[in-house]
Design a protein that fits this description.
Blueprint lengths: L1 E10 L2 E11 L4 E5 L6 H9 L4 E8 L2 E2 L5 H6 L2 E4 L11 H10 L7 H11 L1 H5 L10 H13 L5 E5 L7 H18 L2 E6 L2 H7 L2 E6 L2 E7 H6 L2 H9 L1
Parallel strand pairs: 3-8, 3-9, 6-7, 7-8
Antiparallel strand pairs: 1-2, 1-4, 4-5, 9-10
Helix pairs in contact: 3-6, 6-7
Length: 236
């Protein structure tokens, strides 16, 4: 289980998160919703060890990980897919996956892990020897998700996985995330602007505004509160 209690994040004099408290459970998807600048990315970076936490605690299964550097959190099963499709674009699909696998716990030998990736996304097998920079946007997002899951993470942090993708690809990506979390009991924290889609797959959600949690609860409760319309208005 992942627990944040009164977490602050600051970049110099700029405070990105103010007293954020939330809990994310195994086998469930927790949606973090909000407009650009709400603090969604800072929240995921704080959990993964890439953002400076100035107050509060972050715990994994009861253990405080606040002082651990990012690479040690990765060894504990924390894996982050950052916004922006950050790949080694001059390297092949298989080389990207190999690098990602090398940072994980390595519970499964690389050939078997690669086989599992290709079973989920056959197009990546077809393009395994091509450079990742030549993939379409949807294929790049499939590669990023595969780079996260090839590590067999216990905690999967996803920053805007739907960004810039066609609806049919978004549905495929979200179907994969849902099935992976359920089958492997992975704790997923999903930061999204597409609130309607996120709440369809998430068990619970938290809404950020200016770095603060302004609302939280089950996905159904947030939908009943018409949070999708409120967020849509905020984006305009």
């Amino acid at each position: 289980m992942l627990e944040l209690n009164e977490v602050d994040v600051a970049y110099g004099n700029i405070q990105a998160l103010h007293g954020v408290t939330l809990t994310a459970r195994p086998g469930q998807i927790t949606a973090v919703l909000g407009a650009n600048g709400a603090g969604k990315s800072s929240l995921l970076k704080a959990i993964s060890g890439l953002a400076p936490v100035t107050a509060g605690t972050i715990r994994i299964d009861g253990t405080d990980i606040g002082r651990l550097p990012a690479h040690k959190r990765a060894r504990l099963g924390v894996s982050l897919a950052m916004e922006g499709r950050r790949l080694f674009r001059t390297m092949t699909v298989e080389e990207n996956l190999s690098i990602a696998w090398s940072f994980g716990p390595r519970r499964t030998p690389f050939p078997q892990a690669l086989e599992r990736v290709f079973a989920a996304f056959p197009i990546l097998e077809e393009r395994r020897s091509g450079t990742s920079g030549m993939l379409s946007g949807g294929q790049q997002q499939m590669l990023i998700l595969s780079s996260v899951t090839i590590r067999e993470p216990a905690f999967m942090l996803l920053d805007e996985p739907s960004l810039g993708l066609a609806p049919i690809i978004v549905q495929q990506i979200f179907d994969f995330i849902t099935a992976y979390s359920r089958e492997r009991q992975t704790t997923v924290v999903l930061a999204e602007q597409m609130a309607a889609m996120a709440l369809q797959v998430a068990h619970q959600g938290f809404v950020l505004r200016h770095g603060r949690v302004i609302m939280g609860g089950s996905s159904q409760a947030l939908a009943d509160a018409d949070i999708v319309a409120q967020l849509s208005a905020a984006y305009l």
